[in-house]
Amino acid sequence: MDWRSAFSSTLLLVLLLVSPFFTNASSRLYIVYMGEKKHDDPFVVTASHYDILTSVIGSKDGSMKSMVYSYKHGFSGFAAMLTESQAEELAKLPEVISMKPNTYHQVHTTRSWDFLGMNYHEQSGLLKKANYGEDVIVGVIDSGIWPESRSFDDNGYGPVPARWKGKCQTGVAFNATGCNRKIIGVRWYSGDMSDEILKGEYLSARDGHGHGTHTASTIAGGHVWNVSHKQGGLASGVAHGGAPRARVAVYKACWGPNIDCGGAAILAAIDDAINDGVDVLSLSLGPGEFWGTIHAVTRGIPVVFSAGNEGPIPQTVGNTLPWVITVAATTIDRTFPTMITLGNKEKLVGQSLYYKATTKSRKFQVLVDGGFGCNTEKLALINVTGKVVLCSAPSQAAFTPPRQVLPGIIRHVAGAGAAGLIFAQYTVNLLEDLNACNGSMPCVIVDYEIAHRIRSYAATTRTPVVEVSPTMTAVGSGVLSPRVAAFSSRGPGTIFPAILKPDIAAPGVSILAALGDSYEFMSGTSMACPHVSAVVALLKIVHPDWSPAMIKSAIVTTASVTDRFGMPIQAEGVPRKVADPFDFGGGHIEPDRAVDPGLVYDMDPREYAKFHNCIFDPKDDCESYMRQLYQLNLPSIVVPDLRDSVTVWRTITNVGAAEATYQAVLEAPVGMTMSVEPSVITFTSGGSRSVTFKVTFTTRQRVQGGYTFGSLTWQDGSTHSVRIPIAVRTIIQDFVADTS
Ligand SMILES: *[C@@H]1O[C@H](CO)[C@@H](O)[C@H](O)[C@H]1NC(C)=O
Ligand SMILES: *[C@@H]1O[C@H](CO)[C@@H](O)[C@H](O)[C@H]1NC(C)=O
Ligand SMILES: *[C@@H]1O[C@H](CO)[C@@H](O)[C@H](O)[C@H]1NC(C)=O
Ligand SMILES: *[C@@H]1O[C@H](CO)[C@@H](O)[C@H](O)[C@H]1NC(C)=O
Q: Does the annotation mark 149 as catalytic?
């Protein structure tokens, strides 16, 4: 995609959002509504807007500067930057029907929910059906909570649900007023933490780090208007959680600057949470296999985990137990384009978080080239003081990922008094690292192609100069998304390769949510997990009788593997590629489809018990059971060791209309044949709601191989399309590993 065209198409929208922060503080953006158009010609209508504006501002020039939008097609009106007295004067004019300061409804802040289609204006979707999460109780095991955050204001909430049995465990800087009708309970677990880690921490549920507040507000934060990244104007809009009316129960098990979470503390938290009466458990932590979660799931409490941030390396996914939902992270349709203007007037676009532009830094600055690697030794040879430095990620980027070198380069360049940094790297998102530039030093990330153009200009100009414009917020269909984030941990799982992990992907890049009293971006599968936890909470409300396995199935089988243009979702990495089930499980979450999946792959809790027992107390048939884990009735099939042929059984349960006929649509993994029997399934009212079928895979190529991927989709010919991902690996010789 051409970034500059994306830039220009979003420019108008963006102006509306950011300009209030870069103009005279005493003026703000007002929307002036003037009703029906008085003229057919839009130019005449616009001219009349300028006349009116000029009449209050006093000069034609002033009104040109002030006008942001002229509405001239469907109705008449405009948006303009006005002082309060100008606004008052305008409001008195007979042509003006109404006039109000611009507000930031529905915009882009917790943009991720709009991106997922969970919009407040949506009358038919999951959010509405679940009454915005009213009274569901979400347990969050994390680094605690910042109770004063506006996201947890309990205004307008009824009494705490009577079934709640938890408590408000007070501590340092956290008395009983920290709990309210929104944060209905808190507990903290510091017993297995060293004094070293607890030093400087609040010995209470208060969140000294911010991570727990961020995740909790992403799940259940109420609506907070007019927030932006560090209140600097980027991504400004309304912050809210996916289940904005849900109640929050906080279990602090993670402590210290590195947010270390003790396994014992986590287990204690799970134990308490089950007893307290949470409806969903959300854990943005790991890796590790938290066996205690089985007790929550067998009691009907779904458990959601993050997949980990070790990607794009294969076999790094954590939290791989079959009964939990493991979440990968994706990007959303929001970027932060930042214009770079070279001395020859060429304009190029990078990404930045440069929102505190000063007049000094907005002038042209001398550009110097720090070259490839741009390491300390190289930088020591050039005087970067007061200059903008162009740096390229090391040429062997695969060995030293940009995110490893960028923080050091920023420290060094800023320490040497540079005016700015342009950092070239392969296309991958790592904007958060730019927080080290504090929004006040222009630090722009560009790809190698743009870096080459800047470098060519610098090499052929005696005194090359460059100007960096303040970062804008671009949102919408011009932004290629979702994409699996580079950092998102990838499958297959190493402990149980026959269990597909991750299960699902959700937004986790540059998510704006509460942090202390402010709102800040954070990225990670930690941010993706709460998106799924919120959807699970809403599904629990709409379908209180569904088991955790049914909820997981509904989410996985309705996920999307293509973007809104029908293009396959991609996974970032080196190189970028089409995403497969080891990147995103069933695909990208589609909340409004998950509410009505048609069919589900349910699982009897006794299956979980059997699995658990075969690990901890293996008996008779456990060896063959563990060798055939692909027979677990999960909404996915992974056969890690196909020799000639294998038959896999699954059972589907109809949760849609009593009468329905489904047809199997197969996409066989490359190199094998795949068949399904029966391939047509009819449900009749009065008949069984569950049907068992078998899937047979036969290798066609006798090749010791890697995994190939496919899918099985049951379609009823109208609204339901129940898709499960498939991964199969052919093994010919036991003693030859995949790395051969
Ligand atoms: C409880 O904590 C809040 C916020 O930290 C504080 O304003 C209030 O004075 C405290 N109340 C008592 C009784 O200590
Ligand atoms: C929105 O936030 C900005 C920046 O913090 C502030 O200047 C502005 O007055 C706020 N507007 C409203 C309507 O609260
Ligand atoms: C580096 O450049 C700055 C600005 O041009 C200048 O003030 C400074 O003296 C130079 N430092 C050295 C060590 O040359
Ligand atoms: C950002 O702020 C921190 C803390 O105030 C400071 O140490 C650092 O030098 C600043 N970085 C830049 C690029 O100004």
A: no
User: Which residue is it, tokens 């400004």?
Assistant: 236
Q: 437 in ligand 4 pocket by Cβ < 6 Å?
A: yes
Count how many domains the chain has.
4
Question: Pick from 43, 70, 101: which residue ends a domain?
Answer: 101
Are 30 and 101 a contacting pair, CB within 8 Å?
yes
Q: Rounded to whole angstroms, how far apart are CA atoms 474 and 64?
A: 24
d(CA 702, CA 511): 46
Q: Compute the distance from residue 409 Cα to the ligand 4 centre, in Å.
A: 13
Of residues 192, 211, 209, the one with CA closest to residue 200: 209
Look at residue 325 in the predicted model and tell me its pLDDT.
98
Residues shown for the chain: 740
Q: Indicate whether 662 and 521 sit together in one domain.
A: no
Is 526 one of the annotated active-site residues of the chain? yes
For ligand 1, atom 13, the nearest C-alpha belongs to 175
Pair (135, 223) in one structural domain: yes
> Dihedral of CA 424/429/435/438: which sign?
positive
Q: Is 15 part of any domain?
A: no
Q: Looking at the structure, tell me whether residues 347 and 452 fall in a common domain.
A: yes
Atom of ligand 1 nearest to the CA of 148: 4
Query: Atom 8 (ligand 3): residue with closest C-alpha?
Result: 385
How many other C-beta atoms can be found within 10 angstroms of the C-beta atom of residue 649? 13
Q: Is 263 left (phi over 0), alpha (psi -120 to 50) or beta?
A: alpha
Instruction: Determine whether the shortest distance from the Cβ of 385 to ligand 3 is under 6 A.
Output: yes
Q: Is 142 a catalytic residue?
A: yes
Coil, strand or helix at 664: strand
Catalytic residue, chosen from 112, 149, 488, 526, is 526
Looking at the structure, do residues 443 and 527 belong to the same domain, yes or no? no
Q: State the ligand closest to the CA atom of 102.
A: 2
CA 248 to chain centre: 20
658 CA from centroid of ligand 2 (Å): 53
Pick the catalytic residue from 209, 211, 214, 412. 211
Question: For position 19, what pLDDT does the model report?
Answer: 26
Query: Which amino acid residue places its CA nearest to atom 11 of ligand 4?
Result: 437
Residue ranges making up the domain that contains 665: 636-730
Within-domain flag for 644: yes
Choose which residue among 385, 406, 438 to substitute to test ligand 4 binding: the one with the highest number of ligand atoms within 8 A of its C-beta: 438
Please indicate, yes or no, if residue 11 is contained in any of the structural domains.
no
> What's the CATH number where 51 sits?
3.30.70.80
Contacts of 603 (CB under 8 A, 6+ apart): 322, 323, 547, 549, 632, 633, 634
Looking at the structure, do residues 267 and 140 belong to the same domain, yes or no? yes
437 in the same domain as 387: yes
pLDDT value at residue 107: 25
157/244 Cα distance (integer angstroms): 11
Q: What confidence score (pLDDT) does residue 396 get?
A: 63
To test the pocket of ligand 2, the residue of 23, 82, 226, 520 to mutate (highest count of ligand atoms within 8 Å of its CB) is 226
In this predicted model, what pLDDT tens digit does every residue of 591-622 receive, in sequence order?
999 999 999 999 999 999 999 889 888 888 99
pLDDT of amino acid 361: 60
Closest-CA residue, ligand 3 atom 13, reads: 383
8 A C-beta contact, residue 485 and residue 523:
yes
Q: Give the distance from CA 408 to its chain's centroid.
A: 26
CA atoms of 581 and 587, how far apart (whole Å): 7
Could you tell me if residue 175 is inside a domain?
yes
Nearest to 28 by CA among 117, 96, 100, 123: 100
pLDDT beneath 70: ranges in the chain: 1-25, 36-37, 72-75, 102-111, 117, 119-124, 359-362, 373, 394-401, 427-428, 735-740
CA angle 488, 492, 493 (to 5 degrees): 90
List the beta strands (DSSP E) in 189-246: 224-227, 237-239
Instruction: Indicate if 42 and 148 belong to the same structural domain.
Output: no
Asked if 425 contacts 394 with a C-beta cutoff of 8 angstroms, the reply is no
Cβ–ligand 4 contact at 414 (below 6 Å): yes
**Which domain CATH number covers 262?**
3.40.50.200
